[in-house]
Structure formats: structure tokens, C-alpha cells
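Exercise: predict the fold of this chain.
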Amino acid sequence: MSSAYQAFKEAQAVLEQQVASTTEAFRKIPGVGSGPMGLTPDHIRLSPEYRNAKAAFEAAFAALRNFNGKYIKIFKAEIAAERREKRKLS
């Protein structure tokens, strides 16, 4: 595995961790998903806490999406080789 690909994997892991932590913070807001059919009531969606958490999640997710969109093309062969190795082991 090349050092560039290893650096890509490490940077991707950091971005994925940021998405996971913002998701967790978002879900901890009281009342999220408590309405009918699991929807969040409007009075909660309009709160500053909810809006800040949603903005943080959307920013983290957009950063991961942009990163993946750029580097998935560059490391296409390495990713395919890694997937083949995982399939051989299972």
C-alpha cells in the first residue's frame, strides 16, 4: 500500500469520525425524532441548538462527500484491490 493511499485512508477516517461525532451530538438533542412517524416537531427544528447541530453535521458530511469525490477517482485501483482482498478473506 502506497504512502499516499495510506494518508488518504487516515484523512478519510478523520472525516468519518467528524461525521459520526456530529451525528451523535445531533441525535442527543431532546425531542429529535419524537413526533409522529419519527419526525422532529417544528418547535425543536426551529431551536438554535438544533440548527447549530444540523449545520455542523451538514458541514462535516459535505467535507467528507467532497473529499471522497475527489480522491476515490485517484485511488480507484487501490480501493478495488482492498475490496478484492476483503472478499478473499470472507
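Check your answer against the key: Residues 48-74 form the longest helix (27 residues).
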